[in-house]
Carbonic anhydrase/acetyltransferase (Pseudoalteromonas undina), 179 residues
Amino acid sequence: MAIRSYKGITPAFNESVYVDESSVLVGDITIGDDSSVWPLVAARGDVNHIRIGQRTNIQDGSVLHLSRATKNNPDGYPLIIGDDVTVGHKVMLHGCVLGNRILVGMGAIIMDNVIVEDEVIIGGGALVPPNKRLESGFLYVGSPAKQARPLTEQELSFLKVSADNYVQLKDEYLAEDAS
């Protein structure tokens, strides 16, 4: 795997985390326990930082980046991803904050200064433009993304199931790598 330091800061995670060897992680990135980063993910913590919570999975081909501090925005926009989050294939996350128990559908794009509250589903291909807040308990779809409807009890329970499934899968991959 390509784990690279930038300005003396190296991505940090423990042995419970699976990072596919084809992924590239650069700079100020911290990944929580039991999380996974799948093939061809590119994550650059160069001009700000990336924090990924526990039991979160970042699926194939996703791009994770952030925005630097400027005169008008002294903190910039780091990328913060909570616990039990499923980030689908080819998702782009840029300088946003994702809460806990979220599913981001394949190909979605979430831009700077977006805040996604806990327990949200973002449909595949959705575009969430800068400075939006997605309220807890809803499905968001479209380009630009709009609140479609409340999540069902089944969908709410699936958010944790999805994360648990990826914890199991990354454990299988780690066991395979150890043998």
